[in-house]
Specification:
Elements lengths: L22 E5 L4 E5 L5 H15 L3 E12 L5 E6 L4 E6 L1 H4 L11 E11 L4 E11 L4 H16 L17 E5 L4 H14 L4 E5 L7 H14 L1 H4 L3 E6 L13 H9 L4 E5 L7 H5 L2 E3 L2 H8 L3 H36 L3 H43 L2 H44 L1 H6 L4 E3 L17 E6 L2 E6 L7
Parallel strand pairs: 5-7, 8-9, 8-10, 10-11, 11-12
Antiparallel strand pairs: 1-2, 3-4, 3-6, 4-5, 6-7, 13-14, 14-15
């Protein structure tokens, strides 16, 4: 039985440590094979393969295209590296992945360095990647493009979130290095444009691993002092440099801190052609720190000139307005009569109104008197005593007519009752009995109409006009 792993020359027997007599080396012209003298378990076979592979490929570099890229919850990355004909599994453990500048993604051409290992639980070989970089495009540039696309999709670059800079800030917050020409240039521009505006500097590194963290801290710190220190605008920047030098301004945490800042932020990184992530997310982007100060503060001389022009214009407007008012007052004064004549006119008007009032009062009194007289006559005609007398006479007439009608109705009803009584008497069975007839009924009180309804010996009742006879049938004789 042969293990399907062979060693290319010039491997020597002494290089392979075989501690068990269960294995034997078989040499040929150009190969050294490992022969097994005893059956192996799967675990033994896998361990031997691991020993051979990991010993042979301790360090290697492979280039290819990424596929099946997946990040586990543990922080490890699992992916495949492939070319036109083959592929191999790879793993990037968390301690390596945390230091990556970019995120691996499907279709990316990369160069990886690592070690070949065997995942014994599945019997699969894979590359444990210790270093990975994109081919053609640098890792920093790729990380920049990935972060830019992600933040843009979240809306951090949207213009609707941009805030306008204040016309004249009460205080300016600057986050940059306290050393170098940047802070000196900005303060020089500030003194030239508008001397006297206070500046609050938050010293920060602008390059290196800790720079982004310090810049974020500066933005948050100055935002906390916004109301107390009356800070109206922030400038975050540095001088120019390579992409590595400017990388702190491409940090995601810095971008989010700028987006969440309650104070408008000017990004001032000294590179006019290239943009950082901070440039896209800030409210205003300045190509250099000096131009950032020019955007933040207007020229005092320009403001003074504008103020003088507006003062002159206001003076002219007020002067013209006063001239117009004086002319208007003079015209009104000339049209105004003397007080005596005005009073006399009002006296005449009062006399006229008094005369009209007296005349109208007299007419009203006469009209109301005529109205009262007419109402008095109507009241006499509608005197309740006259109406009561008329109604009383009518009631007496109706009363006599009612009595006469009742008497006639009584007589009519009495005659009708008498006729009905006579008719009832003529039709009553008692009248028949009065004429000498009788009625026979059986013991149940049923009227007997035929001899067939009784039998001999049966007891009967015979009803006469003045009483009842109880009798017994001795014989029945049909007609």
């Amino acid at each position: 039985m042969q293990i399907p792993f062979e060693f290319d020359p010039p491997k020597k027997k002494e290089d392979i440590n075989l501690k068990s007599k269960e294995y034997a080396l078989v040499e040929s012209e150009d190969k050294i094979s490992l022969q097994v003298n005893k059956a192996l378990t799967v675990t033994q076979l896998t361990k031997q393969i691991t020993f051979l592979l990991e010993g042979e490929f301790r360090s290697l570099m492979v280039e290819g295209e990424l596929s099946n890229v997946k990040k586990a919850a543990s922080g490890h990355w699992y992916l495949s590296l492939k070319d036109e004909n083959s592929q191999i599994r790879c793993v990037i453990f968390r301690n390596i992945a945390d230091n990556l500048r970019f995120d691996p993604e499907d279709g990316l051409e990369v160069l990886v360095r690592g070690q070949l290992s065997v995942y014994q639980q599945r019997g699969e070989y894979q590359i444990k990647i210790s270093y990975i970089e994109p081919k053609g495009l640098g890792a920093l540039q790729l990380a920049y493009e990935q972060l830019k696309l992600r933040l843009d999709a979240e809306g951090l670059f949207d213009h609707k979130h941009k805030r306008a800079l204040p016309f004249l800030p009460r205080k300016i917050g600057i986050i940059t290095s306290p050393k170098g020409a940047v802070i000196h240039d900005m303060l020089t521009v500030l003194t030239r444009r508008f001397e006297g505006i206070p500046v609050l500097l938050f010293p920060s590194q602008v390059q290196g691993d800790s720079a982004a963290k310090m810049l974020v801290e500066g933005i948050r710190y100055l935002n906390n002092l916004r109301d107390a220190q009356k800070i109206d605008v922030l400038i975050v920047g540095r001088g120019g440099g390579s992409i590595e030098d400017l990388w702190a301004f491409n940090d995601e945490n810095l971008a989010r801190a700028i987006f969440l800042s309650e104070i408008p932020v000017i990004s001032a990184v000294g590179h006019e052609t290239d943009f950082t992530i901070a440039d896209f997310v800030s409210d205003v982007r300045a190509p250099t720190p000096s131009s950032a100060m020019e955007l933040a503060v207007p020229k005092k001389m320009d403001l003074e000139n504008t103020l003088c022009q507006k003062e002159k214009r206001l003076h002219d407007i007020i002067f013209n307005l006063l001239e117009n008012l004086n002319e208007h007052v003079e015209a009104k004064r000339q049209r105004l009569a003397s007080p005596t004549s005005v009073v006399q006119q009002y006296i005449q008007q009062v006399d006229y109104l008094d005369s009209r009032f007296s005349e109208r009062t007299s007419n009203l009194v006469e009209n109301y008197q005529s109205l009262i007289n007419g109402l008095s006559e109507k009241l006499l005609l509608l005197n309740p005593e006259r109406e009561l007398f008329s109604q009383k006479h009518g009631i007496e007439v109706l009363n006599s007519r009612l009595k006469l009608a009742i008497r006639h109705l009584h007589e009519k009803l009495e005659d009708s009752v008498k006729r009905q009584t006579d008719l009832l008497k003529s039709l009553s069975p008692l009248s028949v009995l009065h004429r000498g007839y009788s009625v026979a009924v059986d013991k149940s009180g049923n009227l007997l109409r035929s001899v067939k309804d009784v039998q001999s010996g049966e007891k009967l009742e015979v009803r006469l006009e003045d009483g009842t006879l109880k009798t017994k049938i001795t014989s029945v004789k049909p007609k």
